[in-house]
Design a protein that fits this description.
The complex is a heterodimer. By secondary structure, chain A is mainly β. Chain A is globular and about 85 Å long. Chain A is 3% helix and 42% strand. In chain A, the strands form five sheets. Chain A has a seven-stranded antiparallel β-sheet with strand order 5-6-9-14-11-12-15. Chain A has a six-stranded antiparallel β-sheet with strand order 4-7-8-16-10-13, with no helix packed on it. Chain A has a six-stranded antiparallel β-sheet with strand order 21-24-18-19-23-22, with no helix packed on it. Chain A contains two helices and 25 strands. Chain A starts with 7 loop residues before the first strand and ends with a strand. In chain A, a hairpin with a 3-residue loop joins strand 22 and strand 23. Chain B is an alpha+beta fold. A three-stranded antiparallel β-sheet of chain B has the order 1-2-3, covered by helices on one side. In chain B, strand 2 and strand 3 form a beta hairpin. Chain B starts with 5 loop residues before the first strand and ends in a 10-residue tail after the last helix. Classes of the chains: A mainly beta, B alpha+beta. At the A-B interface, strand 20 and strand 22 of A face strand 2, strand 3 and helix 1 of B.
């Protein structure tokens, strides 16, 4: 080990100052700077800081397989039960985390097909620069903050698909040494030179954190392998402990073998990225007015929603309950159906069936039928 | 692909042409486009091919 003390570094040919260091250690680069990895848009993960939560999961919600914080999916298919929550408990520099809570434990030692995990699916377009599946596959580094009521060696995995469609997997470990304390972890993974890795709008990669799996999904550690493997034998099974908790935030996946500081993006930019996969109306105070349309029959209003940004694919439509929405006419009304008419990634035409009778050609406006709990939600889903 | 619990699947038609599938998916009433790449449509068709789901004709 040696130390070099200098105030300037100049080029060897013309003696132009390329870099200077002041007495406080501040570095000024005076000439061109060419990094080996990109300076911005390094993080391939969307909503890695868990700030975006369009679905509103601040109250713990029991799940079997659901998205919580945008782009983050939780699965529990064991004999136990679990909840997820958008938590405001986070390490310094972050405001939110994704929390997984075991509400009824399960013993997976006799359940080979049991699965319990949190993952985020990445679109093929996002990971196309990784060149996975080719001889030029790039090394990537995953970094994240994690906290659990349990200690020990936990497992996670990268995969080229999700669930049973996965044909390539890489299982990794990370240790949690102190219970209920935020810890920072980094994992460096050589790119997969074989297998099929989509580079289009289909799923390109799943970044997964195992919270317990049966033996069917246990594989070999630290190597690319065939099949859907999410953990290694002996890794901590959170689902095995009643009331156990696990939280994560600050997730970053980037090219290279070094974990750089988390790339914070603006709330607006992150929200726009999330809306490529999920867009929602309602769920807030008051009766949100969504869109004006026309009656194409006596009890059916047709509205057209332009989609900003364009969604990943033609979306499905869902509602919290049909009766949570109404068409504004004189007197009260309540909707009985919301069906997709014509749709594309750019626009969604929706037929709304109401219990009011109007004349074809009349106008009407779709609004949240506020039930006092702000639960009136209408959403478009183009998730992977 | 993630497995889903799908019931009450029925085609929805506009002017006599099927345009979407109304179904209850994981307990939520949804309307799904006839579009490969949409995860709900892909799962509906997977279950139809597996013989575990039937889509009713449009009314």
């Amino acid at each position: 080990m040696s130390k070099l003390k200098v105030t300037t570094i100049s080029d060897p040919d013309n003696d132009n100052t390329a870099l200077s260091i002041d007495s406080s250690g501040n570095v000024t680069v005076s000439q061109g700077f060419v990094p080996s990895t990109q300076l911005s848009h390094r993080n391939l993960i969307i909503n890695g800081a868990m700030q975006i939560d369009q679905r509103g999961t601040t109250t713990a919600t029991t799940i079997t397989g659901s998205f919580g914080n945008d782009r983050w999916f939780a699965r529990e298919s064991t004999g136990g039960t679990a909840q997820i929550q958008n938590s405001t408990d986070a390490p310094d520099g972050f405001t939110n985390s994704f929390k997984y809570i075991i509400t009824s434990s399960a013993d997976l030692s006799s359940d080979a097909g049991g699965l319990c995990y949190v993952d985020t699916p990445l679109e093929g377009n996002i990971i196309s620069n990784l060149a996975f599946g080719t001889s030029s596959a790039k090394t990537v580094t995953l970094s994240f903050w994690v906290k659990s009521s349990l200690t020990g060696t936990f497992a996670g995995a990268l995969g080229n698909e999700r669930y049973t469609s996965t044909t390539r997997s890489y299982v990794f470990n990370y240790d949690i040494s102190t219970a209920n304390t935020w810890e920072y972890k980094t994992i460096t993974i050589s790119g997969d030179t074989t297998g099929t890795w989509n580079t289009n709008s289909s799923i390109g990669m799943s970044v997964l954190f195992s919270l317990g799996s049966g033996s069917n999904y246990e594989g070999t550690l630290n190597t690319w392998q065939s099949g859907h493997k999410i953990a290694n034998s002996g890794a901590v099974r959170l689902i095995g402990t009643n009331s156990a908790t696990w939280q994560i935030t600050g997730v970053q996946l980037e090219v290279g073998s070094v974990a750089t500081p988390f790339e914070h993006r603006s709330y607006g930019e992150e929200l726009a990225r999330c809306k490529r996969y999920y867009q929602q109306w309602g769920g807030n105070t008051g009766s949100e007015r969504v869109m004006t349309g026309f009656y194409n029959s006596s009890n059916q209003l047709r509205i057209c929603l332009p989609l900003h940004p364009n969604m990943r694919t033609t979306p499905s439509i869902g509602v919290s309950a049909h009766s949570h929405w109404k068409v504004e006419v004189s007197g009260s009304s309540s909707n009985t159906a919301h069906s997709l008419d014509q749709a594309s990634p750019r626009v969604a035409s929706i037929n709304v069936t109401t219990n009011h009778t109007r004349s074809a050609g009349d106008c009407g406006q779709l609004i949240a039928n506020d039930d006092g709990t702000n639960n009136s939600r209408l959403y478009l889903d183009a998730e992977l | 692909m993630i497995e889903m619990t799908i019931t009450n699947a029925q085609y929805n038609a506009t002017d006599g042409t099927n345009v979407s599938i109304d179904a209850t998916i994981d307990g939520v009433e949804m309307s799904v486009p006839l579009c490969e790449g949409n995860r709900h449509y892909d799962e509906i068709m997977r279950q139809v091919d597996a013989g575990t789901l039937t889509i009713a004709e449009a009314e």
